[in-house]
Specification:
Blueprint lengths: L2 H9 L4 H21 L8 H20 L16
Length: 80
């Protein structure tokens, strides 16, 4: 199994709470970086806007896209 497929299988185990906690951890990590390197905040706001758009393209296309990739039956745990 390739690295990407393995990581995809692991990510499918996460629920909404796990996802939001990971998102919060990433935000707080970014705040730590900004506190350590305050020069980052002297960048133009447009750098941050551009990076936000670049990072949001794939998730937005996946969420709103037509059809998309359906979860495989093998990735579901069936009750016995």
């Amino acid at each position: 199994m390739s690295l990407w497929l393995n990581m995809d299988e692991r990510a499918r185990r996460l629920g909404i709470l796990d996802t939001k906690l990971a998102q919060g951890a990433a935000i707080f990590f970014a705040l730590v970086i900004v506190k350590l390197f305050p020069q980052i905040m002297t960048l133009s706001i447009w750098w941050f806007v551009g990076l936000t758009v670049i990072c949001a393209i794939k998730p937005v296309m996946t969420f709103f896209g037509e059809g998309g990739q359906q979860p495989r039956a093998s990735s579901r745990i069936s009750p016995q």
